[in-house]
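Example 9 (inverse folding). The structure is encoded as follows.
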């Protein structure tokens, strides 16, 4: 059995103490117990626990689901939801944050421990898979750039950029558009959906997951009618500093995938690593 460092998010003090007692009897360590979404985010960033037990209905301005999403924006930590409620709307919102478990209160120690062990195993396996995917993507990316680079030295940098951007875009249609379509179907978005904001929210969820799978931290800030998306800790940061062509890949992903939404608006590049910034920032004008 794997012993874990656990963050407990529960606003009922008696229930929280009961959970702590159960966990310690199993051999786990409780790094902290907090009672609000805001404190959950701060504690997750401070302790980087192995797993979080998150009550959904908690005190404060944000609930457990919103807190989980905020934590995922900064840390790759598996989260198990604890709740006394299980209505369809809550399940739909919870599903978007990709939890590793969903336990209905009251629960037994054996049930809790089984969920923790399974979550830790699945998270470890997922991280290994993501590392393999990231390495393969980077290898394919190097190969693709090498094959796509023009042999004619007379071509300008702008011409080379446009040529590579178009080449990336064509490849994305084959490699990524199917997963985009699956995400829209999963979120209940189809051709008849006329709610632009719902479509855009689902698109941002998909886009964030794409770059998170690359090992990139993603932050989204809404300042309607603009949305800012920032990519941090780029896995090919050093390469991008030496060769601006590397930043074309991410820009092509965003530009081409936004076209798939059929929404009115535009995407602009605010900053890139290749231009000297510490992160890449894109602006959606809706």
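The amino acid assigned to each position is listed next.
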């Amino acid at each position: 059995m794997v012993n874990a460092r656990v963050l407990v998010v529960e606003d009922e003090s008696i229930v929280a103490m009961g959970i702590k007692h159960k966990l310690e009897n199993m051999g786990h360590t409780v790094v902290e117990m907090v009672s609000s979404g805001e404190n959950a985010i701060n504690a997750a960033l401070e302790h980087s626990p192995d797993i979080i037990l998150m009550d959904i209905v908690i005190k404060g301005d944000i609930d457990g689901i919103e807190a989980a999403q905020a934590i995922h924006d900064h840390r790759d930590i598996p989260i198990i939801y604890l709740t006394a409620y299980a209505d369809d709307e809550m399940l739909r919102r919870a599903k978007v944050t990709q939890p590793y478990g969903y336990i209905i209160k009251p629960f037994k120690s054996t049930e809790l421990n089984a969920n923790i062990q399974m979550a830790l195993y699945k998270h470890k396996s997922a991280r290994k898979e993501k590392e393999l995917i990231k390495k393969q993507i980077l290898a394919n990316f190097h190969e693709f750039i090498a094959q796509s680079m023009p042999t004619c030295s007379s071509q300008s940098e702008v011409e080379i950029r446009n040529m590579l951007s178009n080449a990336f875009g064509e490849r994305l249609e084959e490699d990524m558009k199917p997963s985009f379509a699956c995400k829209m179907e999963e979120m209940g978005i189809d051709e008849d959906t006329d709610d632009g904001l719902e479509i855009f929210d689902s698109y941002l969820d998909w886009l964030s997951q794409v770059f998170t799978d690359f090992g990139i931290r993603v932050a989204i800030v809404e300042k309607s009618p603009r949305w800012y998306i920032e990519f941090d800790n780029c896995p090919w940061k050093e390469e991008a500093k030496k060769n601006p062509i590397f930043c074309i890949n991410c820009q092509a992903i965003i530009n081409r995938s936004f076209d798939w939404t059929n929404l009115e608006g535009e995407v602009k590049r605010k900053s890139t690593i290749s231009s000297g910034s510490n992160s890449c920032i894109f602006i959606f004008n809706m």
